[in-house]
Structure formats: structure tokens, C-alpha cells
Design brief:
By secondary structure, the protein is of the alpha+beta class. It has a domain of about 130 residues: Mannose-Binding Protein A, Chain A (Roll). Helices cover about 35% and strands about 20% of the residues. The strands form two sheets. Strands 1-2-8-3 form a four-stranded antiparallel β-sheet, with helices on both faces. The protein has a four-stranded antiparallel β-sheet with strand order 5-4-6-7, with helices on one face. This is Proteoglycan 3, pro eosinophil major basic protein 2. GO terms for molecular function: carbohydrate binding. Keywords: Disulfide bond, Lectin, Signal. It comes from Sciurus vulgaris (Eurasian red squirrel).
């Protein structure tokens, strides 16, 4: 009798255990790092970092190049097509803002005017063309350079525009006069023009030497007609 009771209890316990096992939710195996990142050879992360580094380096190189050539770009814009296009709303200088310079011995009929109103190189050239039917002055001798310097030294400016401009690219760069005359004289300051910046030429009111200057600067200027 006792044996039959024990057997019944054992059967009841086994059935209960099976019932609980069937009702329990299945256990999920933990996802490993490898299963989360589909990268069988483990090199994907390194490739991503390498590509990002190259992109950053390229951006830095582009910024450096942009900085180096920005001044050249601005100067070329300042003296590009605008030199040949007169401004429709350009006002000519008042007579009290100009001073006449004694003519060069090589051209006694030429007229030279110092305009005190500061302008960019491009606008100064346009004033010379529209208002005086001429160009920014070209200088072909030490004596005439001294005359221009003597008058310019009396105004409160460090530099004035003359008609010199650097044209061309790289090994083919050369200085020209806006009036098309021959470049046969120079009176450069120490270290100029090789170490200078800018594509336009200005005369220093102290010493009378020439310097390369960014064309976007606003300076007084001398016209010839």
C-alpha cells in the first residue's frame, strides 16, 4: 500500500515538473560583440578611422591652399574685367581734390594730376580713363619719379597708386603699365618686388620707392592724360 502511494506521488511530481517546463519562456542566448558588429576580419573600424583621418587632412590642406591663393584671387578680381569697364555712377574728383604735377621732360604736352581721394587700384584707373581720358601714371625715369614723390610726400598717406601692375601666372609673371608703355624703369624698395605681396604697384611717399601692394587697398593716385 505504501509502495503504491509513493509511486503515485512520484508520478504526480514528474507531471508537474513537465508542465512547468513547457510553460516557461525560452531563454535567449546573449548577443556577443561579434554578432552585433558584422565585421568578420575586425578591420572595419580601422578603415573607418583611416578614411576619417584622410578626410580631415584633405580639408586642412584645402584651407591652407585657399589662404595662400586668396590674395591672388582678390587682386585678379580687382584688376580683371573691371579695368576695361567704366563705372556708370562714377563721380569725377572735385578740382580742389586734385593737384597738377609738372610734366615729364619726355612728354611736355602730357598732363599729370594727383588725386587725393583714396580708391582701389581698379577704381582709380577708371577715374583716370573716364574723367581725364588717360591712365594711371607710368614712370620711366628717376627725375620724373622724384617729381611725383616730392608732391606725394605732402599728403597724409603712406603710399599712392601708380600704373604698374603684375600680370601673368607663375614663371610668366611680368610688370606692365596700364597705359601700355614699355616697362623700362623701376625704383623698388629693398626686398621688392620679389618679397612683396599684391599685384599692383604703389609709390611710397617717404623715400619714393615702389612696393607691391594688394589692389583692393584704398590709396590716392596719379593720373596721366
Amino acid at each position: 500500500m505504501k509502495h503504491h502511494l509513493l509511486l503515485a506521488l512520484l508520478l504526480l511530481g514528474t507531471v508537474s515538473a513537465l508542465h512547468l517546463a513547457n510553460d516557461a519562456p525560452p531563454l535567449e542566448s546573449p548577443k556577443t560583440e561579434t554578432s552585433l558588429v558584422q565585421d568578420p576580419d575586425g578591420s572595419g573600424g580601422q578603415k573607418g578611422q583611416s578614411a576619417l583621418t584622410e578626410e580631415v587632412i584633405q580639408e586642412e590642406d584645402d584651407k591652407v591652399k585657399a589662404s595662400e591663393y586668396q590674395e591672388d584671387f582678390e587682386d585678379k578680381e580687382a584688376v580683371g574685367s573691371g579695368l576695361n569697364a567704366l563705372e556708370q555712377d562714377l563721380l569725377c574728383p572735385r578740382q580742389e581734390d586734385t593737384v597738377q604735377i609738372q610734366g615729364d621732360s619726355g612728354c611736355k604736352t602730357c598732363r599729370y594730376l594727383l588725386v587725393r581721394t583714396p580708391k582701389t587700384f581698379n577704381k582709380a584707373q577708371n577715374v583716370c580713363r573716364k574723367c581725364y581720358q588717360g591712365n594711371l601714371v607710368s614712370i620711366h625715369s628717376y627725375n620724373f619719379n622724384s617729381r611725383v614723390h616730392c608732391l606725394a610726400s605732402k599728403i597724409n598717406q603712406a603710399q599712392i597708386w601708380i600704373g604698374g601692375i603684375l600680370k601673368g601666372w607663375w614663371l610668366w609673371k611680368r610688370f606692365c603699365w596700364t597705359d601700355g608703355s614699355l616697362w623700362n624703369f623701376g625704383y623698388w624698395a629693398s626686398g621688392q618686388p620679389g618679397n612683396g605681396g599684391g599685384h599692383c604697384v604703389a609709390l611710397c611717399t617717404r623715400g619714393g620707392h615702389w612696393r607691391r601692394t594688394p589692389c583692393k587697398r584704398h590709396l590716392p593716385f596719379v593720373c596721366s592724360s
